[in-house]
Amino acid sequence: MPLLALLAGLAMAPVDTARIVLVATTDMHGEVTDWDYLRNTPLAGGLARAAAVIDSLRERYPGQVVVVDAGDAFAGSPFSAYFGRQDAREPYPVIDAMNLVGYDAATPGDHDFDFGAALFNRALAAANFPWVSGNIKALPADTLALAPFVVVQRNGVKLAITGFTTPGTMVWNGAQLRSRYRIDRIEPELGKVVGAMRENADLVIVLCHSGFGGLPGYDSTGVGAENVAAALATGGSRPDIVVVGHTHQEIVDSVIAGVHFVQPRAQAGSVAILHLALVPKDGRLTPVRIRAERVPLAEVRPSARLLRRLSEPHAAVLRWVTTGVGESQGRFSLATARVEDVPLMRFIHEVQRRATGADLSAATVLDLRAGLEPGEITLGELFRLAPSEYPLRAVRITGEQLKAYLEQSARYFFVDSTARVFTNRYAPADRYDVLGGASYVIDLSQPMGSRITALTVRGRAVQASDSFTLAIAANRHQGQGGFAMLARAPIVADKGVTLRDALIAEVKRRRTIRPDQFDGHDWSLTPTYLARRARGLFVRETAAAAGGDPEPDPASGLNLGRTRAEQQAEDSIERERERAAAAAGVVVATLRLPAETGPGGGLGRLLADAYRNALRADVGIALTDEGTTRLPARGLTASEIEAAAMGEATLLGIPMSGADLSELLENAFARAAPCCEFSGLQVEYDPSAKPWERVRRVRLGATGKSIDRKRTYLVAISSRLVQGDGFSLGSTDCRPVQGCRTPGQLSRWQVEQTTRRPAEVLREYLRHLPQPVTPPEDRRVVSTR
Predict the structure, then answer these.
(1) Nearest residue to 761 via CA among 553, 570, 555, 551
(2) 554 band by pLDDT with thresholds 50, 70 and 90
(3) Within its chain, how far is the Cα of 471 from the centroid?
(4) 29, 72 Cβ separation under 8 angstroms
(5) Non-local CB neighbours of 643 within 8 Å, separated by 6+ positions
(6) Is the separation of the CB atoms in 368 and 334 below 8 Å?
(7) Higher pLDDT residue, 283 or 107?
């Protein structure tokens, strides 16, 4: 019967239905390979992965696929920066990659002008596909610089494609555009273009490099609103489909007034796909069904043909980012830079003031995991500290403007009525700056706008009428991020030097730097109890049971300074499979001693440590048989580490009470030999006691204090430890004879599920440890007999 119904449905479908598959990318930011050049790991995205999906779609739907991009393809990564500023080869490798993929149309984004109009023009001239825009005007002619739209014919369907770029580009890249281009407001131009498109095509598609909504990051007076994509669904001239860009959000399919909006993930982290069915109506084809989907690209094997084409540019960028420019005699970290003055930010302030001659310096803490490790300082490390292409400026400001600027920055912290501290969703991290050259206190007990106290410069209280010069990035001076008080500050110096340029020059000049050269504490948070809670947003509180201040986890040796949103973003970046053959032979870690499998073996302990580190958990638990293959004492490749923890298990984070954790441990020790390895714990047990009464004492490895049965601990495990809705602790030999007596069901807790595999986190953990690595030999499980 179901087969007959299906055949009947097929018989009723119009025989002249035309089908189109629209594939979209946006905000690639030069990520055309599959490699993260700053972390030296595979990228969870990239055009090379998107190309594999596009090729597959073309094979499955021959003659139906149309590929478009909604802007910001050219700048924003080490790959694009190298070929934008260091190696002006032709064609620009980003365009070369897009040509190979076979795009049908694209529109510029604001960052596509970062390297100047000359590169922008060269890149577009080398494209084998049309670039379109309805609001970029060429000067002095004041005419459209690009075709207002293009008509693509595919499978009998005419698709008209246009594009619009946020007018905020005039704020952020005004110097690059001056006397060459002007970018007008989007809304007035829409009707002019869409009307003509309707006359020439069956479908109208807009590539809109302007966000779906939200407050602008600048004073829009005289420029135009930054994010107006949603407005394209209003009025009489509405498109059928809008591909949104610019804001780095993700929209699978949002329909407003019949208009479908999609937005793929930035850095080619996903592609948006629309399946369209059209039928004849009133002399043209009309869409009767539009089905949208997204395809995440983290696990997609990259296109071999694109990687071959980019192999030489890829190698050139790798050589560039690993170039040494100086030496660090100590570790510089940004883990706590949003809650306290740290040496690395003080170094950045000194560099900015030296480069501009300014009295004061303002800088954004963008990446809490960036820093400088002891040893050689590479260009890649400095790029991660300063990824922006915006030049530094010295501007003249008053004391009143300085205080207003700091008040705006202090909005980053939100304190609710119960004195809990959060990061402010309406003031994201890229709008939080810290100041160098002045002393001040942020009082979190006060309302936003009244938090800055004790503001002094050179020991003197700042007065509203005082005058200072401030070193700041050009985009912040233009008011980006809600800093309108700086937008009209007179420019005192602008040499066109970026912070990255200045950092490279200063490290080369000094040759070596040490953290103690930049000691000091010029700003702080108050009162103490709120400052402690703010710090807890970035650092796990391992001393909370003792009533002390939260401290970084001393066992991991890694940077733990991340908010939950940033951790999730980083998890997405870290999700990777091993990069094909090219990476298989590269040594990623070296063992001093072998890591053996089985109970008490070093491999199980390494896995437990890796789990705990990956989720920034209090406790890590790994089954003794999760380590499947012994790791020898020598250099290890990615594929060898992968083989040491085979399987498709994934990591889970479970917040459970100390009482529940104790019960789980009793289950693990129900046999004479424990079936798990632990990280973050020291367990004493009596193997001669009755099952589930064997654990005598459990202490936290970091502090040596007994666990608190009422306190909540984050426990990191793999999904291999889970069976159904409860726990299954290993093989039959390890499982208690009386059945699974684990602490209740998983539904009792808010389980945090990730897609990270044990082999992946083990590889990353080993790679970041000081080399060579000695498998842990500390006594974590102690028998009292």
Answers:
(1) 570
(2) very low
(3) 27
(4) yes
(5) 628, 629, 759
(6) yes
(7) 107
Give the DSSP letter of residue 720.
Answer: G
pTM over 0.85: no
Closest CA to 676 of 722, 744, 734, 616: 734
When pLDDT is averaged across residues 559-572 and rounded to a whole number, the result is: 40
**Quick one: CA dihedral 273, 213, 32, 36, positive or negative?**
negative
Q: Collect all residues with Cβ–Cβ distance below 8 Å to 15 and sequence separation of at least 6.
A: none
- Pairing relation of β-strands 241-244 and 259-263? parallel
Backbone angles phi, psi at 347, to 5 degrees: -65, -45
Question: What is the pLDDT at residue 764?
Answer: 86
Per the prediction, the chain carries an average pLDDT of: 85
Residue (of 235, 154, 165, 148) closest to 199 by Cα position = 148
Cβ neighbours around 255 below 10 Å, total: 11
Report whether pLDDT(579) > 60: no
**Average pLDDT of span 193-207:** 93
Of the segments 285-294, 620-629, 766-775, which one has the largest average pLDDT value?
285-294
State how far the Cα of 57 lies from the Cα of 63, in Å rounded to an integer: 10
Give the per-residue SS3 of 435-447. EECCEEEEECCCC
Structure tokens at 37: 């050049």
If one counts every other C-beta atom within 10 angstroms of the C-beta of residue 728, the result is 16
- Grade residue 215 by pLDDT with cuts at 50, 70 and 90: low
The confidence score (pLDDT) of residue 263 equals 96
Give first-to-last CA distance, the chain, whole Å: 69
Cα 572 to the chain's mean position, in Å?
7
Indicate the pairing of strand 523-526 with strand 439-443: parallel
Handedness of CA 666, 779, 764, 625 (dihedral sign): negative
Q: What is the rounded CA–CA span in Å between residue 763 and residue 774?
A: 15
Question: Cα–Cα distance between 736 and 765 in angstroms, integer?
Answer: 32
Residue 143, classed as helix, strand or coil, is strand
Residue 421's closest CA among 334, 330, 529? 529
